[in-house]
Structures are given as structure tokens and as C-alpha cells.
């Protein structure tokens, strides 16, 4: 998607970008300082509505809080989704502070500490175990507390998903129990006093190819069906993962959600109904829900020309928005879509490079971007900033103040 397409999604007013219906300069005044992250409540709702209308009615939607754990965002989404997935004790506490029932909160991720596992068991959330060691700790916590833990087994599949921005399944992984090891682990713990719910398979993230996602879901159902006979109870919970991507750069094409939904509908009505009739299918999404609903706003502090190249130096940078700088695992750095938010209707007049305020050449937010002639005080807006922004960035680097986050 191009910057003008993102501008159209948010809307304009008085020649400025709107966020939550408010002109950007007015929003900046209300926030009181830059930089800041702003998340558009209306766009969040529109994305949930789109997912609800596309996906089969029997498929439950889980929000992966790791994408954006801002409390106001989590509180809002807790009213709109069926489940919340967490990856730490802090995220678990945030989820339990919403209207979401504890039994609809899942806890995934490698390296859960014994203390975190104990808290999860005590709260009654679903622990998605990533190893035999974690499973033993869950059992021990349940015995000690006199409770029956809710357990799902995360499986590292015996297939890889091509086209994912980050592969999280197939081959050797720190995520999940290798598919071929699952039967043995389940035999070992068959008599353990736990509530066996089912399985979680998450093969990769940030995938824009609908056919690949649909194929991964089909293979996931086949895999889980083959493992189901080893589970000491019927499969009632099947987390199919997510991996739905969003376009970050101009050449990216948006995911064909309709094609994904059609394939999922065939699975739900076909193989899943036949082979795992009691399983509730769950799609776990983070980036796809919040990523396109947020912007990062930073103000031009300086404008300089160095040997013919124009630099706009802003008061933000990679310490808040690491991914936009290209330092969040990207193989090749490409510009995120950005605009001068208080002059979005002006045509491009120059090529400028937008850099942050850190003492490193890595602090690059936009390289050779066509923009209106920007002056000191103008507001630069980076789109696709709703997911893996603030909490995925090195905020303590050089000791700059943390940015404000607002849901509008």
C-alpha cells in the first residue's frame, strides 16, 4: 500500500491527517508532546468487523497481546474478541484485568518461569506447554495448589510455512514440542491431573500469501488429527495460529482475507467436523488486528543539508519504533509508509531522509522519501505502527523520555 492509501484509510480534515476523527495538529496539542503513538478505535472496530464477517461463525478470534499490550487497546479488544493470548505474567495480569474470562486466556511462549506457571494455574488460564519440562511444572503447580490446570500442547509441526516474515515452526525450534515427540510426552503424562484441552500450532508470522496460509491450516488440521488419539481427552481446543500479514512497503499486496476464509470454511465443515468434532477452532491474530490501526507521530526538530542530501531530524526514532528503522529482524531495510501529517494534501516537492535523535546511523526512519518541503515543527507520521512498536523497541537507549500512547 502507498502512503496515500493509508491517508485515505484514516481520513483527512483541514489538509491534515485525521486519527480517531481528529485533525493531527489538534490531537498533538491534546497529547501535549511528541513523539506519540495514536491508535484509531474506529479502525480497530472496522478490522474486527471485517474478520467477523469473513471468517466462519464457529471460528473464535484470539488477540495476541504481544502485538500491542497498551491497556486501553487490550480493554477495548476484550469486548470484541473471543480470547486473549499472553506471553508473560505482566500480559497475563493485563488480560485478567479485562472482562475476558480466565478460561479464555491462553499463555504461550518458551521459557515460562515456575512462578509464572504457578500464577497461570492459580488463575485458571490455559497454559500452552512448549516442552516436557513446562508440562511437569504445570502438573506440580496443580498438585501444590490443589487445582486442575488447563493445558494445551503447543506443537512444533513437521512442516515449514514459506513466505512468512518470521518462521516459528518446522525444523528445530525453541517453540513447541516437536510433532514426533508429542505422543511420547503425552504417554508419559497421561495420568497427570490436568484438564487436557487440545493443541496449538503456530508455524509463522507476517504472511501475505493467502494460499500458503490456507495450506498451512489444512496441514495443521491433518497433523492435529493424527496426534489426537494420543491426547488423554477429546480435542476441544485447536489454536490454528494466525500469521496473517499486513503490507508494510509499496510492493506488498494486502492479504486476500476472503481466500483465507474460504479455505477455513472448507476445513471447518469438512476435515475438522469429521475428524475433530468437539474441537473449537481458534485463529490467533495480533499484527493483523492492530497493525494498520496505529500511527507514530514525531516532530521535525531540525532540517539540514549535508553534501546535497536533505535530512529531517525528528524527536523520535528507533528507540520507539525499531521496526520502521529496519532493525527488528528484517533482512532488507525498506521504508515504512510515512507522510508529513499536517500537510498531507500538498504534493511532493523534495526527496528527504528522516532520521531520529539517537547517536547512531541505524536511527533511520525514512530514506530518500518524496515529501512536501517540511519545516521545523512539522509532524512526520509513520503508518503501520499499531503492532510491535513501543514495547518492541529499545526505549531506554540514550535515556530519552518514553512516548505517550493514546487510543482515540
TrEMBL record:
Pfam families according to UniProt: Orn_Arg_deC_N
Class of the enzyme per the UniProt entry, highest EC level: lyase
Top-rank taxon: Bacteria
EC number: 4.1.1.20
Cofactor: pyridoxal 5'-phosphate
CDD domains recorded: PLPDE_III_Btrk_like (cd06839)
UniProt keywords, alphabetically: Lyase, Pyridoxal phosphate
Entry-linked InterPro entries: Ala_racemase/Decarboxylase_C, DCO2ase_PEP1, De-COase2_CS, De-COase2_N, Orn/DAP/Arg_de-COase, PLP-binding_barrel
Gene Ontology annotations of biological process type: lysine biosynthetic process via diaminopimelate
One annotated GO molecular function: diaminopimelate decarboxylase activity
Residues recorded with modification N6-(pyridoxal phosphate)lysine: 66
Protein name: Diaminopimelate decarboxylase
Organism: Jiangella mangrovi
